[in-house]
Amino acid sequence: MRSMLRSRLLLPLALVGALGCGADEPEALTVELPVVARVGTEAFACGKTYTNVGTTGTTYEPMDFRVYVHAVRLVTRDGQEVPVTLTEDKTWQHSGVVLLDFANKDGLCTQGTEGMNASIKGTVPQGDYTGLRFTLGIPEELNHGDPTTLGKPMDDTGLHWNWQSGFLFTRIEGRTQGLPQHVMHLGSTACAPPPEGQTQGTAGCANNNRPEFQLDGFDVAKNKVVMDLGTLFAGSNLDVNTPGTAAGCMSSPADADCGPFFERLGLAFGGQAANPAAQTFIRAE
Asked: What pTM value is reported for the model?
C-alpha cells in the first residue's frame, strides 16, 4: 500500500526465543512491542495537566486515550512481510485486533476501565527483521459487526458509533482552556446504509480512514513505538470549535477541525490526497 508511513528511527521490541514442542518444529520468536503514550516530551497520564498544547498553547487535561490496531507485521531484511500471530488473551488482543489503552480512572478519565494496555504481544518465525508495519483501526470484516458479540476488546460500546454501525478507531478526549470536552474520534465515514452496506460486513464506507504505519529499522533491544498527542495536536486550535460541528473531530469530511488531525495521520481530507510523509502522530524511539 502506497500510503504506508515511514520512519528512519529505530524501533524496540522485547524479544524472547520460544522453541516449538516437537523436535522437527521450527523455532518461534515471541515478541512484545512496547507502545508508549506522550504529550510532547511528557509521558501521558490521566490526572495530569499539560501546557503549551496546539496552536494556542492551551492546557490539556486528558479524559480518554484508546487506540485499536491490527494487521501487525514484521519485515525481513529483504522486504518480506511476516504477520505477527497475536497472543489471544481475549482482554486486549482478539481476532487479530489489539486495543492500546493508556487511560485509567484517574482525573477526568471516567470512560473505559481502570486497566491499561501498552504493548502488542505475539509470535513470528525466527528471522532477520528490520521493520514493523501495522494498521490503525478495526479491520473491515469486523468493523460492522455487533460489539456485544465480538468479545473483548471489541465489546465496549463506548468505542462504537451506533449511528455509523462501526467502531471508533481512536477515542482521544480532553478538556482545554476553551472547550469542556475536545474529542478526536477516528473511524470510517460515508458508509452505505443496510442491508447493502456496513452492517453486512461489506466495504460500504467511502472513507475507510485506516492509516497504515511503516517503521523501517529497529533495534530489538532498545526502542519502542511512541504515540504522541503533542504532535497530533500541533496544527490545531483546541480552544475553539467550528460552529455546528462536533466538539473537536468525529471524522466528518465536512468538519474543518478534522483537517489538521487527518494531515498528521497521513490521511486524505477535504479533497486533499493522503500524504504519508506528513504523518507525525506515531514514531519510533
From this structure: 0.88
